[in-house]
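Changelog note: in this version the structure field was regenerated for every chain. One regenerated record is shown below for reference.
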Amino acid sequence: MAMSGVMPLVVRVLAKLEPGGAQLSVLHVVRALEAHQIRSRVLVGWATPEGLALASGMGVEVEVYGAGGDQQWQADPRFARWLRPRLAGASVVHAHMFGAWWAASQVVEGGTALVASEHNALAWPGGTAPLELLRTGLRRVDRFYAHGPGARRAVLAAGMPPARIRSGLSPVADLDGLPAAGLPSPRIVFAGRLHPEKGPDVLLEALALLPAAPPALVLGDGPLRRALARQVRVLGLRDRVRLCGWAARPAQSIAGASLLVVPSRDESWSQTAVLGMGLGVPVIGTDVDGLPDTLADGRGIVVPSEDPVALAAAIDDVLAGRRVTDLAGARRYAMQFTPARIAAAYATTYGELEGIPERPWGDERDDEEPAAAAVPVA
């Protein structure tokens, strides 16, 4: 980015901050951008105490709007007004999740580039994404990172020029992590938010069909925790399943595992899957949104979503050695996504966008193709 004696400032806006993959990736990027002499200011629409503790533990200061609850799916003019003075002076604004990039788009200064990232499939709660609402935010976006085919389809349907869209980039830390002492071996691991979209309940149903399976560690926290604890009791899994809570460094449990399971109902691009791939652990995932692309070319095994019988069969096959994954290929794929490499790619993008004039839609040719994502590959 341009240097004039003052470090460039990227103002990063998150719709919500809670223990989760998207938020963790943002915090890793903030820290890694320091090596590129880029300052970051982090503004959050809504945060849980656990999310604030996560940011604090990584040494990242945040400022929280807090009114009106979870901002992920809200087009909230009050949030936009709160953002206006806090975006002033930014070299680039980068907003994550619909509620953040919509609000930022309403108030960002002319001449300041706006980057948007969507970490979900834009599957609106209760229905499809309203196109006009998407358009009112997207018209001001200079670069859109779609973390999965669902998000890309949604913004294309809303009229976003293809030349402004890129594949989402998320860093994955601890790809060379080592297992913590005292863990059961062999073991199965799940790591993610305990939320219906992540499907931990499907994994428990599958494990109940495999009485000879090794112990399973369920890492994470979220609204399903109590229901999962009850499900563990009802299915008679208390001796084989451990609900471990949020793990700041899940690599310590995943490294050395027999299997990592990603039984999601919605998954644009799974950092958990990529972490397992980087650590040399076989991964089973579901056929939702972008997850099959992540596990393509033999890097993992894909099963139908919402199908505990198919999931149990795949788990049993991997444990018995009847099915194998390309662990070397999976490792090569994962190593593209270290925090240092992703930060370097974003630093390049921010430098390209800094100071560009505001361009309304229509400037791009219809046949213009977006450039490949600038992720350095070894």
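Spot check on this record: Confidence is low (pLDDT under 50) at residues 365-378. The chain is about 35% helix and 15% strand.
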